[in-house]
Amino acid sequence: MSEHDGDETWQEPANQAEHQIGKAQNQAEYQPEHQTEAHADANAYANADINEDAPDSADSEPHSRRVRRRMSAEHIRRIKRKRRNRRILIAVVAVLLALAAFAVAFVWSVMSARSELQQAVASAKGLQSTITQADSRQLDTKVNEFSGHVDKAYKQTSSFLWTVASHVPYVGDDVSAVRTTVASLEDISSQALPQLAKVSKNVNLSNIHVENGTVSLPGLEDSQEPLSVADKVIDNSTREIKAAKRPHIHKVADALDSAQTYCVKLNSTVHTLNTVAQLLPGMLGTDSHANDAPRNYLILAQTNAEARPSGGLTGSLGVVTVQGGHLSMQPFVSDADIPKADEPVVELTAEERMLFTNKLGTDIRDVNFTPDFPRTGEIVRAMWAKQYGVQVDGVLAIDPLFLQNMLAVTGGVTMPDGSVLDGTNTAQTLLNTVYAKMTPAETDKYFADAAQAAFDHITQNSGDPKAYINALSQSVKQGHLLLWSAHEDEQDLIAESDISGRLITEGAKPQVGVYISDETQSKMDWYLHREVTTEFQKVAANGANQYTVHIKMKNLMTAKELATAPNYVTGGTDGTEPGDIRTALFLYAPANGRLVDWKFQNQNDYQGVTVHDGLTLAVGKVTLKPGEEYEITLHVQSAPNTKNALTVRQTPLIEGR
């Protein structure tokens, strides 16, 4: 074999190896894209085998190509995974930085909104008194301050930050509550307060007065429309704020609580003013009603020394005729002048008969056995019509505490015997002193004369108009002045005010009632001291708020007073000793709520549970010796899921005793 032949023979395997490698590479390049990983791994191993069989190109051929070793699929996946993790990490860091920036911006916005809200409430604290005093200059200042802070808070809570935050779990409810409150305050600022500014320009309290029996109310009728608009806006806003969930963040919650308290007070003030503006022109015949037919109102003068649920035993009655704003007082009559009826003058319900007996509808002295004054108005109107043939247009209940409040403004009035009733002594004189000095017949006449003289006096000269209005307002709040109208449209308006003296039968307005009625048949309730306190206890399983109601009673009569007071005052009949105070108790649970439990100091004094006008009540009877104290504890629940706080209505107290 020649040398040349040997070389050719030696190179053939190399050429074959290159051919095999090229073929394998071509197969790899033209493999379908959907080839499985198993096929790819097989090719990789095949290529590796070929490379191992082929001689080193550096030794065999200077120009031959080096074949690269392919990466495994697992190695490729690791590289891709690292790259993906790096991108995820970068994205997470970016998101966290964005969230941090958002959180900082939102917290700053929250603090700004909270600050503006607090300043708005602070600037509005004197707004109610400014409104009632109709001080247009001061009102403009207060409105501008309030509106400025509310506008700034509204801009904050209307931003994109708050919109996004409202969808975040847990804090979303807090954000929504703040936005609801601020939006409601903005409604008050932009829609209600401008209307109240109009009212302050229409009405000048210095021009509202009573003189020589004529009532002058300039500007009040012109204020009916703006007051109606403001009342509706404020009432709707207050409802929205009450319905909002309480925030988890305490500082924010406190700010919203302050705003809610402000709105509730403002709502009450404006609603009362609106009621007055809508009612008085028609009821008194002023302005456009000057040519209306005359109206007759029955004045029911009560004596709190012998308590009844809405005040006291009827002592005297009189009719005042009103036309064109002028009041004409007719002579008062004693309760003794109206004989007891054989049958109730109106049909009594079975509940009324059981709780209050037929006396509610037959005896003029007991027409206020019921704590529901509109019912008293209906009954006493029927009695007056039966006795005198006159259908009155309404009933106004007053007592010596009302007269004392008013005489403190108008000045004292001189009685026929030369004594003077004024703003310091009227209650004690009419509820205690006269009974100690006079016979029953003499006291009946004196009480009738005093009621007429004092009422006539306070309708002749109002004195300081602002003080006069404040005295009226205070008397309404204390329960010493009640009003019922026989005109349905007027009564609908009155029913929403404290002056109505009605039983609250709506579950959304939780109210507990603590009413008493004297059973001693004496004048000992002048010596009865009462306290009623309430405390929130918990939220029950059904969503109702549960409260503790604590009642304290004490007989204040001393041994010296017992020894010197006449039997007409101290009693001592029908199973009682002189100086005893025997009291019937009617303890009402809130509407659609319930009495959970009750504890009388002496459980024998508890008489049972019953129902009146859909309200559950506990009934008891307590006798107190001079100096004796007594306590009762109730637990009551409001209607489930009621937002409004519990209120208390009770038989009017004798303040200042």
Automatic annotation (TrEMBL):
User: Which portions of the chain have biased composition (kind: Acidic residues)?
Assistant: 1-10, 50-59
Q: Which Pfam families match?
A: DUF4012
Q: Which UniProt keywords apply?
A: Membrane, Transmembrane, Transmembrane helix
Give positions of region: Disordered. Answer: 1-71
Biased composition, class Polar residues, residue ranges: 12-29
- Biased composition regions of type Basic and acidic residues, renumbered to the chain: 31-40
Matching InterPro entries: DUF4012 (IPR025101)
Transmembrane segments annotated in the record for this chain: 88-111
Instruction: Please give the superkingdom of this protein's source.
Output: Bacteria
Specify the protein name: DUF4012 domain-containing protein
